[in-house]
Amino acid sequence: MECKSQLSVYLYVPNIIGYFRIAANAIACLLVFNRPLYTVYLMAFSAILDFFDGYIARLLNQTSKFGVILDVFCDNLWRTTCWVIASSTHQLILPFAVLCIATEWSTFLSTQFVQQMKQSEHWKVRPKTDPVFISYAFRNNFKNPIGFTCIFGLFFCPSLICLRELAPVAWEIPGYDFFLAFACFGRFLSLLIEWYFIFEYISQFDKQ
Hints:
It contains 8 helices and no strands. It is mostly helical. It has helices at 2-10, 13-31, 36-59, 65-89, 94-118, 132-138, 145-166, 176-203. The N and C termini lie far apart (37 Å). The protein folds into 2 domains: 1-78; 90-208, no CATH class.
């Protein structure tokens, strides 16, 4: 019965949506050189699905720890795919892409491990000992100027760069340069937060 119960979690509707997101990212990478516009469509499709999985999970009461981790994994994979596609068409982006990819996956592991070590409710539930910058960014679930800028940069920096490389017509979109610059600034701020989480995880070893 336990195995059957575990299997049902993997077949939850929001988790199946996550599997579709993973597949869309994989196919997008395969089509990037021959069908660049299809790649854009697939990446947009994956991003749209991200808006529905959480809602459906709550609607169907199909929330699970596996689903939470899968959702974060899919978000990381989506951004990684954007960086890979962008750097594959413009090698000057490669160093920054590698830095962001390595940092994001290190942060993903760090937050999960720290949560297990501290047995905390969620890694987003921050202690009062955090630096002011970190505390302010997380205030009201990122619903503040710094938090919004970080989240915007985290998702839109790779996607806007990717769009620019695959669809040059993006340059003609009014305000595109401004949004791209703002996204790059936000990505820098989010890097600072990610490095803080990584060092927080490393510091746990000194306390053992």
